[in-house]
């Protein structure tokens, strides 16, 4: 698992450097990933590979900070699990233990929580760092120091 997190951290840094952004919506645009918003019921989002096209669907009911987290998670699936269909289930996906979900959560954490946020705030707990960034504390268990 440690090696996996390190590799994903490097991959995320590659995309940040290449496109000069941490914004998952901008990255999706650069990577030709179609993003659509609509009613998804209990699902926060999903990634689907349809007829050779990468598509991310986001629930229209998400608040901004949650939308960004879900987008980063689904973007990870579009990069790491290109031909798999994956779903983000609200309030549960950060708790799942499947390999694909751990990888997507790790990608999202590395993208959304800059290392500098941690190093510039040495007195903060990981929960406080997550809240400072605007996300649920559970994301920090996927962040590599």
What can you see in these coordinates?
It holds the Pfam family Peptidase_M78. Residues 28-120 form the IrrE N-terminal-like domain. This is ImmA/IrrE family metallo-endopeptidase. It is a single chain. With 145 residues, the protein is an alpha+beta fold. The chain has one domain (2-142): Arc Repressor Mutant, subunit A (Orthogonal Bundle). It is built from six helices and four strands, in the order H-H-E-E-E-H-E-H-H-H. Strands 1-3-2-4 form a four-stranded mixed beta sheet, with helices on one face. A hairpin with a 2-residue loop joins strand 2 (43-50) and strand 3.
Explain briefly what this protein structure is.
It comes from Eubacterium ramulus. This protein is an alpha+beta fold. The chain has 6 helices and 4 strands.
Overall structural class, as computed from helix and strand content, comes to alpha+beta
Mean pLDDT: 88
Radius of gyration: 14 Å
Based on Cα principal axes, name the global outline. Answer: globular
- Alpha-carbon distance between the two ends: 14 Å
Compressed to H and E, one letter per element, the order equals HHEEEHEHHH
Number of contiguous helices = 6
Q: What topology emerges from the helices and strands here?
A:
Layout: H1 2-19, H2 24-30, E1 34-38, E2 43-50, E3 53-59, H3 64-80, E4 86-89, H4 99-112, H5 115-119, H6 126-133
Parallel strand pairs: 1-3
Antiparallel strand pairs: 2-3, 2-4
